[in-house]
Amino acid sequence: MEAKTLQEAVALTKNFTSKPSNDELLKIYSFYKQATEGDNEEERPTGFDFVAAAKYNAWLSLKGKSKEEAESEYISLINKLSEKYI
Length: 86
Description:
This protein is an all-alpha fold.
């Protein structure tokens, strides 16, 4: 099954039989956040929460990308990963 909408792509991730790599998870997260919320306007995480910092930086790296473009890239990424994880 190939996702054509953001909702279908999100649903497709629930069918993954194994967990994507950390790199892939960061891409999934950042494209989703950019597609649904736009540019990252949150405060930078402090301390030693490296996961939060990595997620923050991944999302921040997409600054300026339109929601539509991020959504398209998210769908494309999920379709590609589904070949590997379903």
